[in-house]
Design brief:
Order of helices and strands of chain B: EEHEHHE
Helix content of chain A: under 10%
Radius of gyration of chain A: 16 Å
Distance between the termini of chain A: 28 Å
Number of strands of chain A: 11
Strand content of chain A: 25-35%
Structural class of chain B: alpha+beta
Number of domains of chain B: 2
Largest interface: A-B, 45 and 46 residues
Largest sheet of chain B: 4 strands, antiparallel
Structural class of chain A: mainly beta
Radius of gyration of chain B: 19 Å
Number of strands of chain B: 4
Shape of chain B: elongated
Shape of chain A: globular
Oligomer: heterodimer
Largest sheet of chain A: 5 strands, antiparallel
Strand order of the largest sheet of chain B: 2-1-3-4
Number of helices of chain B: 3
Order of helices and strands of chain A: EEHEEEEEEEEE
């Protein structure tokens, strides 16, 4: 069974807990895009040229809204797999477009439910791998949407837990489909 | 370290980072073999996929400079205006949207299902070596 990826409820209003399968979080960088870029047309707070999906060893329960990438798996740090030994691991690109021929975002849909609704979009499925062995660190517990291809760095926008810890070995691939709901 | 775009029979494109071509071949061979045997592709149990080609890059193929030569930009935008003009009028919103696509490192349309999804030109292309 594929990991369902993230289904993130991003809202400024108080709302009942969305019926998520897994814990999710919207980081400060995503919120700033709304306040500074969308509302204020900021020239410095802008979306990245390309989105990148990354895998973290730490579950969302460890994070805070201002979590940052760090090799130390402590506090609220986001720690990426494969930073010591990649064994094939690399972040996967998602284009900043809708319904083109490559990997990007689907047509958004609307849920008018007052308390839990919003506008949702799902990214095309991305695939990690093929792994040539065990990456180090290994054991993915969350997916993170990032803004650069370099590991363990850059802005992070949202994250969601995997259904279970994913430990990779030679020949493995991993598929992730991210969905985002803005409500 | 080099980056390799692995493309499967079904059109899946994934980017991997390996120390060498040999490491790449080992990983691709292991996954391809699972596909020929109908085995799972990874920890979630999804099916493995047969690999058809691998394209090699010195950097992540999506990691391109945001800049473009002025000459290329002039031609691209001139062609864009011609494409979008209706009765001599161009929608600025549509122009802005299409302009962002020009700068995207991922293609808008793939040549075919098994072609690269990246605009970057590969240094080397592999189409065999992982079959038994």
């Amino acid at each position: 069974m594929l990991d369902p990826g993230m289904h993130l409820h991003h809202s400024y209003a108080d709302a009942e807990t969305h019926k998520e399968h897994h814990a999710v979080i919207a980081f400060q960088e995503l919120s700033k895009l709304v306040t500074d870029y969308v509302m204020g047309a900021s020239g410095s707070v802008t979306p990245p040229t390309t989105w990148y999906m990354a895998l973290s060893t730490r579950a969302v329960s460890n994070y805070a809204r201002d979590s940052a990438w760090n090799a130390s798996a402590t506090g609220t740090n986001i720690t990426e797999i494969g930073t010591t030994t990649a064994a094939g691991y690399a972040r996967q690109a998602i284009a900043k477009s809708i319904n083109t021929g490559s990997i990007d975002w689907g047509t958004s849909t609307f849920d008018s439910t007052l308390s839990t609704g919003g506008q949702s979009t799902a990214a095309d499925q991305v695939t990690f791998g093929a792994f040539s062995g065990a990456p180090s660190p290994n054991g993915a517990n969350a997916f993170v949407l990032a803004g650069v291809s370099t590991l363990q760095t850059g802005p992070s926008y949202f994250a969601g837990d995997t259904a279970a810890t994913r430990t990779f070995a030679n020949g493995d691939t991993e598929k992730v489909t991210a969905t985002l709901k803005a409500g | 370290m080099s980056y390799y775009e692995i493309i499967t029979e079904s059109g899946t494109s994934m980017v991997a980072n390996y120390e060498s071509d040999e490491e790449m071949m080992g990983a691709v061979k292991a996954h391809h073999e699972r596909a020929t045997k109908g085995e799972a592709g990874g920890p979630t149990g999804h099916p493995a996929e047969r690999v058809v080609r691998v394209e090699k890059y010195s950097d992540h193929p999506a990691n391109v400079s945001e800049g473009m030569s002025a000459e290329v930009a002039k031609k691209e935008f001139a062609a864009l205006v011609d494409k979008l003009a209706e009765d001599g009028v161009v929608s600025m919103d549509q122009l802005a949207f299409e302009a962002r696509l020009i700068g995207s490192p991922l293609v808008v349309e793939r040549e075919d299902r098994q072609s690269s999804i990246y605009r970057a030109e590969a240094e080397e292309v592999f189409t065999e070596g992982w079959e038994n």
